[in-house]
Amino acid sequence: MKQDAIIRFEGVTKQYDGLVVLDDVSFEMEKGKFYTLLGPSGCGKTTILRLIAGFTEPTEGTIYFHGQPVNHVPANKRQVNTVFQDYALFPHLDVFENVAFGLRVKKMKETDIREKVAEALQFVNLKGYENRRIQEMSGGQRQRVAIARAIVNEPEVLLLDEPLSALDLKLRTEMQYELRELQRRLGITFIFVTHDQEEALAMSDQIFILHKGKIQQSGTPKDIYDEPVNRFVADFIGESNILPGRMVQDFLVEFAGKRFECVDGGFQPNEQVDVVIRPEDLEITAPERGKLRVQVDSQLFRGVHYEICGYDENGNEWLVHSTKKAEVGEEIGLYFEAEAIHVMRVKDDGDEK
Ligand SMILES: Nc1ncnc2c1ncn2[C@@H]1O[C@H](COP(=O)(O)OP(=O)(O)OP(=O)(O)O)[C@@H](O)[C@H]1O
User: Fold this and answer.
1) What's the complex ipTM?
2) CATH fold label, 5-226
């Protein structure tokens, strides 16, 4: 175990009425990092948060905080606070009293409460809003009140369950910066749940990708984007061209009816593989200069690039992001470096093939 692991799951399974929601999940989280649980609806993200918070217990396996088992430790005895999707603020109380709530429950002295609430509101840039009613606050401000209410308790871990999903895109992007910055300043562990892959890539130190009750991959945003371990991850994170292929030998892979040099090794000769090439790693050339020939089927202007879709001679679909324009019906060449080819073992990702 790492020295500063604050939370550890060991073989954690969670079932509801016989339905396996988490299946033998193990991981560690360190102090002071920004973690994101990412995955499609129903993959078990909220269940992990509920297990960490102590709202529910594992069916099997053990959860440790600082190396101590906590399966039976109640929620109010854990150094964990949660910011919920709907914020769960008290509409009849003003901002100050919403933030002070947990401290009053703990029967803290009034002077200490004033000091701590002021500090928490300062942290989320809401100084001066103490006497406002919740109804008079915007969506982004309510979000910040909810965060202040959680951090005022000085938790070791802050759980955030899709906290930005109610906000419009512009505010959401602003709050992404704010939350990330807040986490850095506070230095506490944030565990953030989202099903938005761009949000996860932008905010996290480490991402856990969940699917069908299993962690498919964990790593830094860059690791996961550059080196997805299976089809599910490659497809879920960013846009990808994913093709079935065969490893001829190390550093030589066959797909789309041709052989290409690549930088991946350690495979069995003739091993079946999946090949990923990101759309931005494809370059449009004259047909005779490309590694593949593609007939352009559609084109969309996306502001920073054109999104071009076409088919090669074998009927494989190709998505290309390019600053160069192409004409529908035109034959183009696609060039890519050996480094752009990412070869993955055909691993079971829980999906029916
Ligand atoms: N208390 C419960 N009783 C029975 N089934 C539950 C319960 N809580 C969750 N589930 C089921 O467990 C599965 C995982 O739920 P969970 O809320 O963890 O998913 P999620 O990844 O957070 O999804 P979403 O993004 O939609 O919130 C779902 O199929 C859900 O219906």
Assistant:
1) 0.95
2) Rossmann fold (3.40.50)
